[in-house]
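Milestone 3.1: sequence recovery, worked example.
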């Protein structure tokens, strides 16, 4: 399917690896020129080189922390006029309710709520003026079904979801669409980290830890960054103009819900 976005320009945050990279590669395959971002310059440059060589699109790499004002300023300066914005950032650490104080919540809000809002506020006016734009926020399945040990993430990402719900319906009349993607477990570094924690806590192998988690997923496997990216590219396409303010769960059926 031709997504109709060849030659568009996209900023994809936290895209040197994992789900962000999956989104960047899918957009590049559709002919979109990219501004990539990551905190680690070496991994970021390697990803940028791979995408340039594989897909033949323009790629600008900006090593910066999207959770900081300086990092966002550097990204926006490099990005220029944007057609597509993909917001993404790593989640805050797990724990229990008694572990977190105000500073922990502020850090989580800065990274997973306020940073994407700031980037949207910067990008939306230009998108509105040109009469077309796409924003995809990578949040978490915990927005739909909270995960007890991820209280910081539950809170910050739910706040972003509320902001998007109202904002998406204000800008849709201008041809600008904002939607959220809610990942479950995917085969990324995050999954390795989680499985390592289970392996250490239970004294089992990594393979056993993975198999144990896969058994809780109806699809009986982890998702891939490539299939996650394909959904992102579709939401950014010319075919998604009637999809507004939605929260699309990609979790292999792990969240047991009718609606």
């Amino acid at each position: 399917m031709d997504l109709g976005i060849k030659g568009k320009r996209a900023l994809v945050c936290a895209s040197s690896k994992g789900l962000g990279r999956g989104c960047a590669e899918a957009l590049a395959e559709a002919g979109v020129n990219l501004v990539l971002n990551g905190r680690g310059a070496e991994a970021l440059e390697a990803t940028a080189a791979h995408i340039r060589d594989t897909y033949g699109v323009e790629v600008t790499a900006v090593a910066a922390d999207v959770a900081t004002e300086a990092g966002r300023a550097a990204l926006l300066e490099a990005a220029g006029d944007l057609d597509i914005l993909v917001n993404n950032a790593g989640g805050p650490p797990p724990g229990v309710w008694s572990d977190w104080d105000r500073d922990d919540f502020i850090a989580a809000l800065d990274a997973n709520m306020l940073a994407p809002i700031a980037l949207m506020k910067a990008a939306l006016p230009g998108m509105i003026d040109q009469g077309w734009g796409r924003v995809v926020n990578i949040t978490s399945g915990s927005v739909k079904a909270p995960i007890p040990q991820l209280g910081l993430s539950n809170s910050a990402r739910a706040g972003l979801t509320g902001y998007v719900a109202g904002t998406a319906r204000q800008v849709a009349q201008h041809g600008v669409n904002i939607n959220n993607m809610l990942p479950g477990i995917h085969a990324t570094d995050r999954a390795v980290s989680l499985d390592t924690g289970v392996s250490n806590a239970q004294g089992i192998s990594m393979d056993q830890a993975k198999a144990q988690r896969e058994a809780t997923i109806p699809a009986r496997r982890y998702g891939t960054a490539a299939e996650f990216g394909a959904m992102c590219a579709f939401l950014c396409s010319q075919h998604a103009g009637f999809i507004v303010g939605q929260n699309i769960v990609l979790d292999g059926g792990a969240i047991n819900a009718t609606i």
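The CA atoms of residues 146 and 230 lie 25 Å apart. DSSP finds eight helices and seven strands in the chain.
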